[in-house]
Specification:
605 residues, mainly alpha, Four Helix Bundle (Hemerythrin (Met), subunit A), two-stranded antiparallel sheet, 2 strands, globular
Length: 605
């Protein structure tokens, strides 16, 4: 028997009301958290009177209560089957956090202060309140940004605009009155923001003295987000709190994140973020232990250098970098930072694959010696050919750079150091040009042989999927393997019984060719704007450092003219995006054509 008309109509009305409330709650959370974040920026970035500060506290209380009720309404009306168990737990945890903060802020003066309850008082602090506002904004902004993931769009274009947005945002934050000690010009702020987002490390003003703790905190956030990529964070929050995506959006994310497995997109993002924070936490602990107790702000210095090293940024809170007297001969610190640089430069895919390799190897040994009767017939080797190529190339470059640098500078910049100090400094000078930018020696005093070695290492850079720049180790390896194949008259390029496709070879030589063009154009423009004020070698060193997002300099960066600064800004931006990303973003992908032209040989050599 059919339902009466008025019953059907009644349920339709309820469904419409439910949809309206859900949409309204989403808008309240998004725009309310945005207003809250803007008020936080105003509170922290400007010098304000006590009356204005009191007004802000009232506004904070109203916003947090409003956001709690909006979140409660949306969560109550949300369908249970839309989210997995873990996502529901995350939503409930965030709702409880909003409830705890709202209760503590509203009843703190009348009840909590009198009873001296420490736990509710903790939730009433501005630090927890600000963190909640930022978290809600990240969640809501990420949920909204997922609507931008349309297959018709070019992933490379979205990546380009995401970095531009982050640079502009960082520039505005660095220009806040309380971010610097004596103010900063727009060009210097834009240069510094670009250098931080592109994890380069070139600076036009002294980071240690020009920026306040608030300003250094902004730089730290820009380095972290720029190193991992803003799309990584937004995709993580969007997927985790929104739930499942459409099949088309999953295809878009697969292309954007270079993920081979469609179902592994979200897992890869989670692993990248967890891996990053674990390594940075370990690095923070080791750096903290290695620093002398007499150093002020030891906690922040350790955190800043751990993030900067792993992200291959090269920023330091010391005026002279690691040449500062308090850390110049701290070889334990130098070695720790070098290891963080190497791990960050290898890239998450390679590190994850190496982890799987050791895990499989230990499993084999365990089964052979502990349970020999249960050894399976075959356990596949987890180490891929790409990981082997990256690992071997990185190892050879470190050894090659260390030996040549030690030979070149043993009696020059390394003179006066003990043998152990010379070897650590040579190792450090071999590792950091691979896009890190830290220095324990003055590069303006190096001989030409050491400068050429450093330029070569900077140009090569780190590995694919890492926080570093350069043409990448795999590009160099493929170029060498191709040259060997041509010399041996082999038709295919092979390595360890694996043949590389022609597409990979074309990409490698495209990256090499275009990188040389970009660096050459940058050197030309820099020399043109500087009107002969700098020599060719310092200009080339600066441009290669900018393109490979290294951050090393021969001392000319602070004295660059306005035009010279913009040349380096553009070079850093292109280098961080990568040659292929830039080309794909500009020209887009061409549809396949079902025809071939006649072939004709061209004389070479």
């Amino acid at each position: 028997m059919d339902k009466p008309f008025f019953t059907i109509h009644f349920f339709d009305v309820l469904k419409n009301i439910r949809t309206i409330i859900q949409n309204l709650s989403t808008q309240v959370l998004l725009w309310g958290s945005l207003v809250a974040c803007l008020l936080i920026v105003y509170n922290l970035g400007f010098f304000i009177s006590p009356n204005v500060r009191s007004f802000l506290q009232v506004a904070y209380n109203l916003l947090i209560v409003m956001m709690f009720f909006a979140y409660s309404a949306r969560l109550f009306l949300m369908q249970r089957k839309m989210l997995s168990r873990n996502r529901w737990i995350a939503h409930i945890a965030l709702l409880l956090l909003l409830f705890a903060i709202s209760s503590a802020r509203v009843f703190y003066v009348s009840y909590i202060a009198k009873e001296q309850l420490q736990i509710p008082a903790f939730f009433a602090t501005n630090y927890i309140l600000f963190a909640a506002f930022v978290l809600v904004f990240l969640v809501e902004a990420s949920r909204s940004s997922m609507e931008l993931l349309k297959p018709a769009q070019n992933p490379a274009t979205l990546i380009i605009f995401s970095f531009l947005f982050l640079i502009v945002f960082g520039t505005a934050m660095l220009m806040l009155p309380r971010a610097t000690t004596n103010g900063i010009s727009f060009v210097d702020a834009f240069f510094t923001s670009t250098s931080a987002v592109c994890v380069t490390g070139l600076i036009v003003i002294d980071t240690a003295t020009a920026f306040t703790p608030f300003g250094k905190g902004i730089l730290l956030v820009l380095i972290q987000v720029g190193g991992l990529g803003i799309m990584t964070f937004s995709t993580f929050f969007g997927l985790f709190f929104k739930g499942n995506l459409s099949f088309k959006n999953q295809l878009f994310l697969k292309d954007m994140l270079n993920e081979t497995n469609l179902s592994g997109v979200f897992k890869s993002i989670v692993k990248i973020i967890i891996f990053t924070f674990i390594i940075e936490a370990i690095g923070f602990a080791f750096i903290y232990i290695s620093l002398d107790n007499g150093i002020n702000d030891k906690l922040f210095i350790s955190a800043f250098h751990s993030v900067s090293a792993f992200c291959n940024a090269g920023f330091s809170t010391f005026s002279n970098g690691l040449m500062q007297d308090v850390v110049k001969y701290n070889y334990s610190l130098h070695f720790i930072i070098a290891m963080l640089v190497v791990i960050g430069g290898l890239g998450f895919p390679v590190v994850s694959n190496i982890y799987q390799y050791f895990k499989t190897t230990l499993k084999k040994l365990y089964l052979q010696f502990v349970r020999p009767n249960r050894v399976p017939s075959h356990i596949p080797n987890a180490l891929t050919t790409g990981s082997k190529l990256v690992f071997y190339t990185t190892l050879l470059l470190i050894i090659f750079g260390t030996v040549l640098f030690a030979i070149s500078e043993w009696n020059r910049s390394l003179s006066g150091l003990p043998v152990y100090g010379k070897m650590v400094s040579a190792l450090f000078a071999s590792v950091t040009p691979r896009t890190a930018g830290f220095n324990t020696i003055d590069y303006s005093t190096l001989g030409y042989s050491a400068i050429l070695i450093t330029i070569l290492l900077m140009w090569i850079g780190a590995s694919p999927g890492s926080t570093g720049g350069g043409i990448k180790t795999t590009t160099l390896a493929l170029a060498f393997l191709t040259a060997f194949s041509v010399a041996r008259s082999k038709e295919h390029v092979e390595f360890r019984r694996v043949e590389f496709p022609a597409e990979s070879i074309r990409r490698a030589f495209t990256v090499i060719f275009v990188s040389v063009l970009i660096i050459g154009a940058s050197v030309f423009c820099l020399m043109l704007f500087e009107h002969g004020k700098i020599g060719l070698m310092p200009a080339m060193f600066e441009c290669v450092s900018a393109f490979s997002t290294v951050g090393l300099t021969m001392g000319i960066t602070p004295s660059l003219s306005l035009g010279g600064k913009w040349v380096i800004i553009v070079t850093m931006f292109i280098g961080r995006l990568g040659v292929l990303t830039l080309l794909i973003g500009i020209f887009r992908k061409i549809t396949f054509k079902s025809y071939r032209y006649p072939s004709e040989n061209v004389y070479i050599n």
